Amino acid sequence: MTERYAMYIDASKCMGCRGCQVACKQWNDLQGFVPGVRETKNTGSYENPLSLDPQTWTRIKFSEYDNPDRFQWLFLKEGCMHCTDAACVDVCPTGALKHGPYGIVTFERDLCNGCGYCSQFCPFGIPKLEIINSVTGEAKSSKCVFCQDRTVNGLTPACVKTCPAAALEWGPRDAMVAKAELRVSELKAKLGFPEARVYGKTELGGLGRIYVLTAPASEYGLPENPRYPALGTVWQKILQPVGQIAFGAVIVGALGAFFVARRNVVMEEVE
Amino acid sequence: MSVQLRGTDSSISIRWIPKYTTLERLLHWVHTATFLPLALTGFVLFAPWLEPLAQGAAGAQIRLIHRVAAVFFGGVPIIYTLLQPRRMLMNLREFLSFGKYDLLWLKNAFPYYVLGRHGNMPPQPRFNTGERLTALVMVLGTITFGITGLSMWFLKGVISATLFQWMVVIHDLMFIVTFAMFIIHFYLAVVHPMMWQSLVSMRYGVVSESYAREHHAMWYYGEKRAKQMYEERQAKGEQH
User: Fold this and answer.
1) What is the domain-level CATH number for residue B147?
2) How many domains is chain A built from?
3) What average pLDDT does this structure show over A16-36?
C-alpha cells in the first residue's frame, strides 16, 4: 500500500485563471472548443463551463459571498474528491471505479458499462455520464482521476503542474493537511479571514482534496457535512447480501420440502 | 375425452374443464420468457461476484438485453388488458377477494403441501389463497418495476439523485421478492408431485374434473355448496 496522497487546494490563492481547466483537458485529451459541437455561450458570467461534464473533469466554480464585513469572490476548483469512503466505488458493478495507489479513486473506461450509478450516488455529484444513446443505454462515466498516468510515475497532476498562483500542490496527505492547517491559522490571525477553514480533512473518511477555504463551505456550493448516501448502504450492505441469502434459502427450502413431500404424499390419492 | 390405456383393452374417460384462454396461456409463457432474462441480466448488476459479466461491452449488452426484455415484459399486461379486458378484470377481482377460508388455507398449507395431509384443507375458488397472493405480488411487482425501471432508464439526471437512489433500492427490493416468489411458483407448478396438472393447464388450458374438485371445490361446486360440504366433513371429523 502506497502512502495516501492528496491535492492541496488553496482557495485564498486561486485567482480564477482556469489554467488548471486547460491543462486538464490538454493532458487528458478532452474536448475544449469544438465548432458546432462544444461552443461557449455567454451566460453573463465569467464562469465557464457552467458545470462539470464528461469533457470537463475540473473547473473553477465562481461564487459571490457578500457578507457585512467584506465582499468575496470565491473560486473553487471542482473535481473528484477521491473520498476514502467512496460511494461510487461501492456501487460500481463493474470494478471500473477502484481505490488505486496513493488513495486515488481510479477509473478504467474500458470496464465501464455505462450504468451511471456512480453519477447518482456520489455525495458531491461529480462523475458525469456521457450518454451516447439514451434508449440503448450506451454510455460512459467520466471523472478526474488525479492524472493517474502521471502521478503513479512520480509526476504531479497536470492542473497542479500548471497553476501559476501556487494554489495547488500534490504531496503526501498528512503533509498537505498540515500545510492547510498552517495556512488557515495564518489567514485567520494575520490576513483577516476569520471564517477560514480546512475542508476535506475528515469528511467521508478523509478526502483526496484538502481545501483551504476563506468562507463557509456552503458559500462555495460545497455540502457543509457531506454524508455517504444512506440508500447506497441499504443497497450494498443489506439488500445485496439479503437477496442472495433469500434466494439460496428459498431454493434449499423448496428442495427440502420436495424430499419430505415425496415421502409423505401418497400418489394414489393425488387427483 | 377417452384414453386407451397402453397394452390393455380398458380405457378411462376424463372430463376436462377449461381454465385459461389461449391468450392467457400464450402471455403466461411470454411473461416467463421475459421474466427470466430480466432476472438473470439484472442479477449480473446485483451480485458482486458476477462483476466480470457486468464489465465494459459485455455489461453494455447485458443492460441492452434487460431493456429489450423489459419492453415485452411490460407489454404482457397491456396486451392482455386490451384484448381480453373482461377476463383481466374478472381475474383481478378474484385476486383481490380474501376471506375466512384463506386463513384456514394458510394454516393448513404446510401439512398439505409438505406432509400430504388433505383432510382439513378448506375449499378454494379458481385460484387458491397462495395463487392469489402470488398474483397480487406479480401485479404490484409489474407496476413497481415499470415505474422504477422507466425512471432509471429515462429520468437519470432529470429526477434528483436521492429519488434515483430510491428507484434503484425499490427495484432491487422488488426483484428479491418476485424472484424468491418465482422459485416457489416454479417448485409448486413444476416440481411438486401433487400439482402435476398446473403445467397441463398452462399448456392445454384445461384441468381434469377430479383435479378441479379436489383443489378448487368452490369453483367446481359453487361457493355455497363447497363450504357446506367442507363444514359437514369437518363436523364428522372425517379424514380424507
Assistant:
1) 1.20.950.20
2) 2
3) 94
Q: How many domains does chain B have?
A: 1
**Same domain as A241, residue A176:** no
Looking at the structure, do residues A130 and A216 belong to the same domain, yes or no?
yes
Domain boundary among A183, A198, A220: A220
A238: which chain B residues are within 8 Å (Cβ-Cβ)?
Answer: none
Asked if A93's CB is within 8 angstroms of B44's CB, the reply is: yes
Residues A55 and A111 both lie in one domain: yes
Q: Please tell me which residue of chain A has the smallest CA distance to B210.
A: A271
Q: Is residue A48 located within the same domain as residue A104? A: yes
Residue type, A172: P
What is the phi/psi pair of residue B61, to 5°? Answer: -65, -40
The phi-psi region of residue A94 (left if phi > 0; otherwise alpha if psi is between -120 and 50; otherwise beta) is: alpha
User: Does the CB of B155 have a partner CB in chain A at under 8 Å?
Assistant: no
DSSP one-letter code for A195: T
Q: Establish if A225 belongs to a structural domain.
A: no
User: What domain range is A53 assigned to?
Assistant: 5-220
Predicted confidence (pLDDT) per residue in B79-115, tens digit: 999 999 999 999 999 999 998 889 989 888 888 888 8
The size of the A-B interface in CB pairs under 8 A is 141
**CATH code where residue A61 lies:** 3.30.70.20
- Cβ–Cβ under 8 Å, residues A104 and A145: yes
Per-10-residue mean pLDDT for chain B, 240 residues long? 71 87 96 97 94 95 97 96 96 92 88 81 90 94 97 95 97 97 93 84 91 90 90 74
A63, A116: one domain: yes
